[in-house]
Amino acid sequence: MTNTKKILIIIQRSNGDVFLSQALIGSLYEYYKSPQIDLLVNDDTLPVARLLPNINFIHTFSYKAKRQNRWKQEKNIIGSVFRKYDLSINLTASDRSVLYALFASKNSISAIENDNSKSWWKKSLLTHHYFFDKTKHILLNNLESLNLLKIKHNNILGKPKISEVSISRIKNKLVKKGIKDFIIFHPSAQYDYKIYPNTLRSELLSLLSGLDIAVVITGSNNQIDIAIKNQLLAQSNVFDLIGETTLEEYFALSELSLAYIGMDTLNMHIAAAQNKRIFAIFGPTNLTMWSPWSNQLQKSATEDKPMQSYGNITIFQADMPCVACGKAGCDNQQGKSDCLDHISPKAVFDEVKNWHQDTEF
CA 168, CA 109: separation in Å to the nearest integer? Predict the structure, then answer.
């Protein structure tokens, strides 16, 4: 595959999966000397995909279009990728995404399930395959195709690209609010079951407001974030920017910040890519796969503990035998996660305070 000029990478999962593909993309771009790299992603992750460096074109899959006319969309996607690539790499094990990889190129690599009853045909048709390993960080899973291609690489999560325009806009916004040094507090996530309860969040913010540093609360304009915005109480040294930045402007804001405090979500991974000091509050999420990646140590968390630190990262979990269950809430239906009720705001604050006192800005 030394003459590879056109590559398709298929990522049919969440924002975090798309963002954490940067290391793979960067390595391929360097090794194959600036090839054309296209993506195929779910349409709800398109804003993140557009901010990845070294991307030529993005194909999208829509679950709404699937419900309306499944076969029309499949026909259009297959027609747009069919044998147009020298190499296709699929980062998920679903049947659909594997078929896209097979149609796109004669040289196809994909993650597959360990269950042979589901993956036997994939093994026989793919050029190369690897088993998607839930005991391994998503970054390392994503880099398995490089190992199959014998491409040397490091395990570094690359920084997102940020335009000078976005950096300038954020700097102007901070100046207008009188903010100089600041830390980010990100209280939301894509799903309610990952969100710290309002009473504990309010207590933590009250404690953080006593530090001699600005606390900037971030979020988007979606329903979950706006609900949190409406619950916020006015406090000194705390600045509410929920709904006031684009995604790229948030990248710029995060780059200018000193630290990230908040939930297990895309924003946490952005901070990790930027090598920020991170204080992450985790509920039921599988740490082995989804804890913040430390570029400094090239590692993530591998076991559950009420509090643990590695490199520039500190993680807080509940001290409960069920943690971390990996479910979408206690009912596994995106309902409430009781474990988040058992993470002390004071414990989080004490770690932030110790870092703040020990760091020269």
Answer: 41
Where do runs of H (alpha helix) occur along 160-246? Answer: 164-176, 198-208, 223-231
Summary mean pLDDT of the chain: 96
Sign of CA dihedral 61, 67, 68, 70: positive
Domains assigned to the chain = 6-148 (3.40.50.2000), 165-358 (3.40.50.2000)
Give the mean model confidence (pLDDT) for residues 252-276: 97
Give the model's confidence band at 295: pLDDT under 50 very low, under 70 low, under 90 confident, else very high. Answer: very high
Token pair in block for residue 282: 């985790």
> DSSP letter string over 342-357?
GS-HHHHHHHHHHHHH
352, with CB counted inside 10 A (0-12, 13-18, 19+), is: buried
Neighbour tally for 332: CB within 10 Å:
12
Tens digits of per-residue pLDDT, 32-63? 999 999 999 999 999 999 999 999 999 999 98
Written as one string, the DSSP assignment of 281-319 is E-SSS-HHHHSPPBTTTTB---S--SEEEETTEEEE---
Model pTM? 0.95
